[in-house]
Design goal:
Order of helices and strands: HEEEEEEEEEHEEEEEEH
Strand content: over 45%
Number of domains: 1
Largest sheet: 15 strands, mixed
Number of strands: 15
Structural class: mainly beta
Helix content: 10-25%
């Protein structure tokens, strides 16, 4: 037996033992629909909870209804962040946006949005500073709500190594932006359920990693290698935090 032939069995066994290697990685299923029901999340900075996120997805006529409640208070790189919002989106079966309404307060400034997708883009009515105006956010092709970004790749097949580009309604900036989501691959942590690891470019110059389960539910998001963590939690924990921080609830 030659030196190289003796090494082949050794390396084969080694590769099988390596965590996350392709042989042990679970397959990524293609979703036919988004995960229905409610999900609660904690938002933490430096391991201290600073906010919450509550998402409910239900069936609606011709598609789905997505409602999102969120609130956060934190200081990040010298900038304070104080925001609370209530959002409601009606989407088609493929998660493309049909209509929406938003009620939010960012750093003490209230903002209300209401709109719908039209041929030219997104028609939106904006109420702020006691004034109401209408504008069209010009955009070609499908537009998605923020809550669909983590689900979209799995409904497209979620192929490892592939990137997906979509247009997202940015409710804070009141514009349509481009988002790139890259699928890193499926992971099967020891003692845990299989997840799909993805990254997106929502935050310029900052890594944003996402893990979703194979039903499309977000499990965890990590910004800047764990500086800010959004973590799935149970309903009681979410309600308990919100009860102790009522100022974070918009409605």
């Amino acid at each position: 037996m030659t030196f190289y032939s003796r090494l082949i069995p050794f390396f084969f066994v080694l590769l099988l033992l390596l965590p996350g290697y392709a042989f042990s990685a679970p397959a990524i299923p293609r979703l036919a629909k988004p995960p229905l029901g409610e999900r609660w999340f904690s938002i933490s900075k430096d391991k201290e909870q600073a906010g919450f996120n509550h998402i409910v997805i239900g069936e609606a006529s011709g598609g789905y209804e997505i409602t999102v409640e969120s609130g956060i208070k934190m200081t990040f790189f010298g900038f304070s962040r104080d925001a609370s919002s209530w959002e409601r989106y009606l989407v088609n079966p493929d998660l493309t946006l049909r209509s929406f309404e938003v009620d939010e307060i960012i750093d003490g400034k209230p903002l209300k949005l209401k709109g719908e997708v039209i041929a030219a883009g997104v028609k939106v009515t904006i109420t702020a500073d006691g004034k109401t105006k209408e504008k069209v956010l010009k955009s070609k092709g499908a537009v998605y709500p923020p809550a669909a970004v983590n689900i979209y790749p799995l409904m497209q097949g979620g192929e490892p190594g592939k990137s997906y580009k979509l247009k997202m309604l940015d409710i804070e900036a009141v514009k349509v932006i481009g988002v790139k989501v890259s699928v890193i691959g499926a992971e099967a942590p020891a003692g845990g359920a299989a997840t799909v690891h993805m990254q997106n470019d929502l935050y310029t110059f900052v890594d944003n990693d996402i893990w979703v389960d194979q039903s499309g539910n977000t499990v965890k998001e990590s910004v800047r290698h764990g500086l800010i963590i959004t973590q799935a939690e149970d309903r009681e924990a979410g309600r308990k935090f919100l009860a102790s921080h009522p100022s974070l609830k918009r409605r």
